[in-house]
Every structure is written in C-alpha cells, then in structure tokens.
Queue: 2 jobs
Job 1
Amino acid sequence: MFESIFFKKKILLIIGGGISAYKVLEVIRELKKNGSEIKTILTKSGREFVTPLSISALSQNKVFENLFDPSNESEMDHITLARWCDVLLVAPATANLLSNFADGKASDFATTAILASNKPIFLAPAMNVEMWNKEINLQNVEKLKKNNFRFIGPTIGEMACGEYGEGKMSSVDEIIFTLKNYFISKNQKKKLSALVTAGPTREYIDPVRFLTNESSGKQGLEIAKSLSEIGFQTKLILGPNKLNLKNLSDLDIEHVKTGDEMLNACKENLPVDVAVCTAAVSDFKPKEVFKNKIKKDNLNTFELAFEKNGDILSFISQHNKNRPKLVVGFAAETENYIENAKKKLEHKHCDWIVVNNVKDSSIGFNSEFNEVFIINKNNEIEKLSKSPKSEIAKKLAHKIFEKLHNNVGNFN
Ligand code: CTP
C-alpha cells in the first residue's frame, strides 16, 4: 500500500455559509482517509448549514468558532492556527467571505486567520450566478488573485436556487485534485521527467493521401497536462489533431505525422522517468510512398502493399540502456478488453496497461469522457469510472507520481 501524498499534511479548513457546505464534509472524510490532519474554523453562517458535531466527528478535531472563546486551547489562537497548517482551504467561499478577504478585514476567526496566514490559501467559491458575475465580486476575485489567493472553480451548473450558470462550488474530486497537485509539485525536489505519445498517425500513400484513425489525442494531451501540472518535465509527442493547444506554455510539444516520425521523436527524448504511450499508432504503413499524386487514368484497380510500423511502446519498454522506471501503455479494444489488454501488457513488456472499450461511443475516441481499467504486471486491476478525460488524466498522473515517489526513495 502506497503512502498518500496527503499523509500528515496539515489543512486548516474554513467553512463558510452556503448550501454546498455539506459537500465539505466529504472533503474532510477524503482527506482524513488519506492521513491528513484537519482543523476547522466554522463561520457563524456556516453553522446554519453544517453542525460542529458532524465536522469534529469527521475531522477528529475541535471546531473553532469564536475568536474570543475561553475554551480554545490557550496556544490555539488565530495566529497559531494559521502557522500550524501547511495550507488553508476555504469552502464554500461565499461572496461575503471573498469581499472580506479582499478588503483585508479582521473581524472574526476566519478573516483574522486568513489575514495572519503566510501559507497558500485555496478558495472554493460558491454563490448564485448573478452574484458571481457582479462586477464588484469579479473585482474582488481579481484583487484576491493578484494577492496570491488560489481559486478552485467555481464551475458551471445547476444551483441549489434552481438557476443555472457559473458559481457552483467545484466537486469534491476537483478540490481534492487541486490540493493533491499542490502537494505533489511541492514534493518534487528532483524534477521527474515524462514522455507522452498522443493522437493518431498518418501513413502516407502519396503526398496528399494517407491512412489514419479516429483518435483525437485528447486523453494523451490531458495526461501530459496533468503530469506537467504536478511538476513533471513533460514532453508530448503529438500526431495530427484538432485539439485546442492554446495556453499550454508549460508543455513541450513536438508535432509529428507518421509512425516513423513518432518513433524517432521518442528515441531522441529518452531517457525519462516515465513514458505514457497513448498514441493510436497505425499498425501498418504503405511499403512504398508515391512521390507524386497517384493518377487514376490508367488504373481500374489499385493494390497497396503494407509493412509493419515500429512498435514505440515495445521499443521503450525493452530499451536496454534507457528504459524508463515506469512504462504505461494504452489498449483500445472493442471486445474481450481485459483479456486482450493483459496480452498486450505481456507482449509489450510495459508495467501498466490502461484499457478502454472504444466500441462504446460515449467513452473513448472523440468523446469528452472515458472509463478505463489500469492493469499491472501482477494482474491487479483498478477501475477509473466514467468521468471527463481531464479527471481520468489527473488520477493517472497522481498514481504515476505515487508509484515513482514510493519506489525511487530520493524524494521527501
Ligand atoms: N503502440 C505503439 N506503437 C505502435 C502500435 C501501438 O506504441 N506501432 C502502443 C499504443 O500507443 C498503445 C499500445 O501500443 O499504448 C497498444 O496499442 P493498440 O492500438 O491498442 O494495439 P496494437 O498494438 O496496435 O494492437 P492491435 O491493433 O492488434 O489491437
């Protein structure tokens, strides 16, 4: 069993007054399960939504409410509490709390702790869409961002009041992912490196015609982004795609077209700590590429001869000198997917294989969602249930980090 990155991390949680406060109980539970220590400040309006009893039962710690409560342990004033923690999380961060923080108020336990803090502060806003979009609120948000407050969401969705739009508190998973990203990247004393292949390849017949497949490259891009977010030096070798690649300055992307180009780019980018091969590389390529456009004039039938493309995953997995510590393959299957994936894991000598059923059009190729099973060499299987590809990517990136972190020993 791996030690979670949350183990012994100290989190000061401020719970504001909003209907989504109930979700924060789940956040506490998840963090506790992973070994965090949690202390909580409950605001006066927060108390209208969740009880101190349920919070202290889950956090196994006292809940702080009144700044001048004589029953507070003498050493636990707002300053000591702010120094005690590794990070602060405010959830739900109401419009009122954002406004107070932006004004630098020190009028209760929550605002004084925030003002006294010298640690990273994460805010998970939750409010009605009109409140979120009010210019005055957006100005507060801007001011807070300029002052290094970190925002988790909000997201767009149906709200408790029945209206729809931006202002909904981020999901429990998203809050946990963000904190986890922070702790992982902080933990990387020596920067780990990653190589990710993604997208389809094009195998040219002549200068304007080629064979390709349905792969969008989305899942691979998300994995590269997630690895980069948690501090991996990440190289993405990307086949032809229609992805939005704006605002990805942290990611080193090399564009390739053919399987041969992808293989060569991978060779040039070894060694790395982890390789993740998500690309749908064409298995075959035409034996001959015509120099000029093929004319149909003199042809009634036309036959093409193919030869096998080099297998990039197998090449990396079996590299004598530069085999990455962890090699992850993907398997796109339409039937018997667990069995077929296990065979691929064995034949290609990788450490994990991530399999998805591409026959189901609601997941896999071209979909925003995915559902995968991660299989390791001991035939252990972990399911990542249907969720957006970005979430699957974060979970896989965290799992990769935890594996390297626990095996390599030169971290922490
Ligand atoms: N792969 C690769 N190079 C190739 C073919 C596949 O690196 N020339 C990698 C893929 O990136 C993926 C894994 O091998 O990580 C499995 O790919 P997949 O397309 O599912 O299977 P194939 O090996 O192509 O076998 P088949 O098409 O027969 O299922």
Note: Residues 197, 259, 277-281, 283, 309, 311-313, 329-332, 344, 348 surround cytidine-5'-triphosphate (CB under 6 Å).
Job 2
Amino acid sequence: MIFEKKIEEMIRRLEAKGIDNPRVLQAMRKVPRHYFVAPGMELQAYDEKALPIGFGQTISHPYTVALMTQILNPKSGERILEIGTGSGYQAAILSEMGATVFSIEKVRDLALRAERRLKQLGYGYRVLIRIGDGSLGWAAHAPYDAIIFTAGAPNAPEHLFAQLDQGGRLLVPIGEKDEQILTLFIKEQQKIVKKEIGKLRFVPLKGAHGWQS
Ligand code: SAM
C-alpha cells in the first residue's frame, strides 16, 4: 500500500525524536492520518508538518500529536476532554489507545466533518463531539482523567481544574499567539503540580478564556 512506507518513515522519525512509548507508536501507526487531511494533501499526511484543514485551522505535526499523547499517557477506559477537535486526528489517537474522548470544536463545519470521519473509521462510539466554546470545558461529563488543549491559551486554565479528577492531568500550550510553552498540570491531593515541557506553536484558542480577536 502506498502509505505503508510513509507511515513507517514517520514512526522512525518519531522514535529518533524521543517517542518511545510503544502504545503511542502503535496508535500513530494504526490511525490513517491521510483520512484527516484536506483532499489532495494525502501524500503529505505523514510528513513532519502541520497541514491546513480549512477555516484557517490545521492538523498538528505528527511529532506534536505523539509528544502530547506520550505526556498524557492515556490508559484504556480513561475519560479525556479535548479542546479543539479540528480534523479529529488527536481524538482518534486517544480513542485508539482505549480512551473515551469528549471533544469540543468551535467551527461547526470542522466538528461535523470530524464526527463523520471518526464514525467512518470506527472511532465514533468512543468519541463524542460538541460544537461550542471549549475554553469553558464540558462540565456535564466531568470529572475527566485528562484534559488536552490543542490550541494555544493566553493563560493557565485554572477554572478547569475543577473538571479534573484526583490525579488528573491537564496539558495545555500557554503563551503568546505565535508561540507557547507546553505545560502540564497534575491534580494531586492538596495541590496542583505544574511542569513546563517546552516551546510549541499552536493556533490560538478563542472563546471566553481564549484570545478575543
Ligand atoms: N486536535 C486537532 C486535530 O487533531 O486535527 C488539531 C486542532 S487545531 C491545531 C486547533 C482547533 O482548535 C481548531 O480547529 C480551532 O477551531 C479549535 N478551537 C480554537 N478555539 C476553540 C475553542 N474555544 N473551543 C473549541 N475549539 C476551539
């Protein structure tokens, strides 16, 4: 198959960059990323780059998705809130690893496309998508084992700590519009532990707790 070689090359690149969790690598191998890119871009799907998905939005680099998934380390049966469904690719990876994903997307057409795509690929039963402002979280399904932001927030989303279960992880890029620091928060018994991972570049988070313009 035309994509098999490209998939293996992507896996080799991810390993060379430090992705060593076999479950993450297996999910990256299994989820057909070429279904998640815009028509005509399928052959570039496994290259190390973000690609446009319409409405000024992008599907993140393979390494970014793999790194965030490795940090989050989702276990089978966990409940994860994703803010920024986009193409649905990150949600598919988490679902492939056995998590139930609650995902919010503000752009209606992207949400509907992602929902259709995930159903076609057999992930629909473990991914629930909602159209709306994900910066507010999704209180109805809380508490979550993990929350992942796939858009860059201007500030730490402390208001969402209440939607995290004990021991829960919240992974979010925080910073300026054009560059952020990927930051992990862990909710422990009496405190929130914060760890800065490194610089990344995401599209801006919009909404009540995001950028206003
Ligand atoms: N996770 C996606 C994927 O796997 O394709 C990539 C996400 S893309 C980098 C960021 C997405 O966040 C965009 O689709 C954008 O519309 C969405 N977004 C930005 N602000 C949002 C908000 N407040 N609520 C929900 N979605 C938001």
Note: Residues 57-60, 83-84, 86-87, 89-90, 104-107, 110, 133-135, 150-151, 202-203, 205-207, 210 surround S-adenosylmethionine (CB under 6 Å).
